UniProtKB/TrEMBL annotation, chain B:
InterPro entries: CheY-like_superfamily, NreC/VraR/RcsB-like_REC, Sig_transdc_resp-reg_C-effctor, Sig_transdc_resp-reg_receiver, Tscrpt_reg_LuxR_C, WalR-like
Name of the protein in question: DNA-binding response regulator
Listed CDD domains: LuxR_C_like, REC_NarL-like
GO molecular function ontology, one term from the record: DNA binding
Source superkingdom: Bacteria
Domain HTH luxR-type intervals: 152-217
Single biological process term from Gene Ontology: regulation of DNA-templated transcription
Organism the protein comes from: Cellulomonas pakistanensis
Sites of 4-aspartylphosphate modification: D56
All copies of domain Response regulatory, residue ranges: 7-124
Signal peptide as annotated in the record: none
Keyword terms of this UniProt record: DNA-binding, Phosphoprotein
Gene3D superfamilies, sorted: 3.40.50.2300
């Protein structure tokens, strides 16, 4: 474990000259990058040690911002944001100090090579160069991993990554050939290369199903994650709406009217969110009506101050126009009347046919005689009946003995439609 | 109607809701059993064979078919046991699912206690129970608002003019008695019309109905 003040060994992407090894080392050791680079340069003439070391570290040190890596390694409770998943990954990677092991192995290998060189074998030509080639090729191909991770975070896969993969494969292949075919003639070399490629092809063919399954599982996992985020959306919505309302209701449990009103408003909102497909504004009379009902339920109370529920049934739908606007305004007045003077339950029924729209508003109050209402009371006569009749509709108020009052409104749509068609022919 | 209370089995996965319903029912109705899942419901209904089952549409357990699955599993009992669906959902596919499986009515959970008792008694008497919302839904599904009205009695895919009138009045909040008074017919005739509409709802192959039923994977 490095001391807390020391940055972990990473190859930073910023401030690098070749592979970021010198910059990373400098950050890790707390010395100037220039000093490290000079050291590498000085070591290069000494049997190529500088280059070898550089390549080795290039291969073994992972890419990354040392500062970020240090942050990720910090205990979660010290970080500003708790990110358990990332923390878990870091822990798992930490369990085996791969870098240290690799360094040790490389140093041992270097020592063995020197010993063998003393004994008289040409180790460097026969072994070191091919192995270095192999490792470099593998590293090039494996750096793909970084690219894939970056791509998942929002980048895109370009031709560069493919080039990198192919180049890595070629370099590693050449390394393997040099390593294995040290005493072979060119003929056998070619032959064995063909055989090796054939075997690789066969293996790839056999392993293809597993590969495909892996890809499919990845797709499934992504779908699961999408579902997860959808669930998070729902949870967020429930939190913002239902839980808040429940908290409010608990706080005001001693006020039954208010509680009933809040519960009703919340129910309507949640229902709309769950079941309704939301029509575009200005295309649905039903949506306008729903808004009117919501407004009345939220702001008005019955004669005794109790919350009122309006049982709404809508059949069919049509686009709003001037006459349906008048109809809905009249409906609103009728509903207000029913809520204020009638007795619940208040029933509202709207039926939109091809030729006309009908609205019925019913309450269970004692009823009243519209003809007995004095002339100066504008409510029913003007705002409900007059509004509809002026637009060419019919309107009536029916009182039943013991059955409450029903306002019946009917608005023809024909005229408006014909007018719209005239307009269209004139334009055409 | 006789004075003996009607036995019902109450099926709902929310304990709180079951308690609320039990408290709101008056002495005309007697709860003889309760169940919270599809499997439990089938078991309890088979054991008690009540005249009426109050059935929630959304239930856990079984094959995920909810209330409709319970009804289908008890098809052989439908002569003596009738199902009344009780739901918070207004979604068309939920309504169609339970009605087509064989439920005799559909009421929403906002219904008051006395109204629910009336509905239970009505279903026990062999009649169908239509809430205003279900009536509106029927009118929508059969295209009645667009004037698509049957001319013959044996047509399954359209409502007759009289059935349409009855449905419209129920959707306007009228009780069966008020409907009868408005149309100058007897309550019995109203009940006959409503039962006929229920039958059409169950048997019709109208596109809307089959599509909604398909949404819950039953036809």
């Amino acid at each position: 474990m490095e001391s807390p003040s020391r940055l972990p060994l990473r190859r930073p992407e910023r401030g690098r000259v070749v592979g970021g090894v010198a910059a990373g080392l400098a950050l890790h050791l707390g010395v100037s990058a220039r000093l490290v680079r000079v050291l590498f340069a000085l070591l290069t003439p000494v049997g190529g040690v500088g280059v070898a070391l550089y390549v080795f570290w290039w291969v073994t040190i992972p890419v990354g911002d040392p500062a970020v890596a240090a942050g990720a390694g910090r205990p979660a409770e010290l970080s500003r944001l708790h990110r358990p998943l990332e923390h878990d990954t870091v822990q798992r990677l930490r369990r085996l100090p791969w870098t240290e092991i690799a360094v040790g192995v490389a140093l041992l290998a270097g020592a063995a090579a020197m010993l063998l060189a003393r004994a008289g074998t040409d180790v460097v030509g026969n072994w070191v160069v091919p192995v270095l080639l192999l490792v470099a090729g593998a590293a090039l191909a494996w750096s793909q991993l970084d690219a894939v991770q970056r791509e998942r975070r929002g980048g895109s896969r370009g031709p560069v990554s493919v080039l990198r993969l192919v180049g890595g494969l070629v370099i590693a292949g050449v390394g393997v050939l040099l390593l294995v075919g040290q005493e072979a003639t060119p003929g056998t070399l070619v032959q064995s290369t063909v055989a090796a490629v054939a075997v690789l092809g066969g293996v790839a063919l056999v392993l293809a199903p597993w590969w495909l399954r892996l890809v499919r599982e990845l797709g499934d996992e992504r779908a699961a994650r999408a579902r997860e985020s959808e669930r998070a959306d729902i949870a967020a919505h429930l939190h913002d709406s239902v839980l808040q309302t429940l908290a409010l209701i608990r706080a005001r449990a001693d006020d039954p009217t208010e509680v009933a009103r809040m519960a009703r408003a919340q129910e309507r909102e949640l229902r709309a969110w769950l079941y309704d497909d939301r029509p575009a504004p200005g295309t649905s009379v039903a949506a306008v009506l729903a808004a009117i009902v919501a407004e009345i339920e939220d702001t008005r109370t019955g004669p005794d101050g109790e919350a009122v529920t309006i049982e709404t049934v809508v059949v069919g739908d049509t686009e709003p126009d001037a006459s349906t606007d008048a109809l809905l305004q009249a409906t609103r007045e009728a509903l207000l009347n029913a809520v204020r003077h009638g007795r619940p339950p208040v029933s509202l029924y709207l039926e939109a046919g091809p030729d006309e729209v009908e609205v019925f508003v019913r309450d269970r109050g004692d009823g009243f005689d519209p003809d007995a209402v004095p002339d100066d009371r504008f409510g029913v006569r003007e705002s409900i009946l007059g509004r509809v009749r002026r637009r060419g509709g019919t309107a009536s108020v029916v009182c039943k003995d013991g059955g409450g009052t029903e306002v019946r409104l009917r608005m023809p749509l024909v005229r408006e439609r014909a007018a719209a068609e005239d307009e269209r022919t004139m334009q055409g | 109607m006789n004075d003996a209370p009607v036995d019902v089995v109450l099926v709902d996965d929310h304990l709180m809701f079951r308690a609320g319903v039990k408290a709101s029912l008056d002495d005309r109705v007697h709860v003889v059993g309760e169940a919270a899942t599809v499997d439990e419901a089938i078991q309890v209904v088979r054991a008690t064979q009540p005249p009426v089952v109050l059935l929630d549409v959304h239930l856990p357990g079984g094959d995920g078919g909810g209330g409709a699955e319970v009804i289908r599993a008890c098809t052989d009992l439908l002569g003596g046991t009738r199902f009344l669906a009780l739901s918070v959902s207004d979604a068309a596919e939920d309504v169609v699912a339970v009605i087509r499986a064989g439920a005799r009515g559909y009421v929403t959970k906002a219904i008051s206690g006395p109204d629910l008792c009336d509905a239970v008694l009505r279903v026990a008497g062999g009649d169908a129970v239509f809430s205003p919302r279900l009536a509106g839904f029927v009118l929508d599904a059969f295209g009645a608002a667009a004037g698509d009205v049957a001319t013959g009695d044996d047509e399954l895919d359209r409502l007759s003019a009289r059935e349409r009138e009855v449905m419209r009045l129920i959707a306007r909040g009228y009780s069966y008695r008020e409907v009868a008074g408005e149309l100058f017919i007897s309550i019995k005739t109203v009940e006959t019309h409503v039962s006929a509409v229920l039958r059409k709802l169950q048997l019709s192959s109208r596109h809307e109905l089959t599509r909604w039923a398909a949404a819950r994977r039953l036809l």
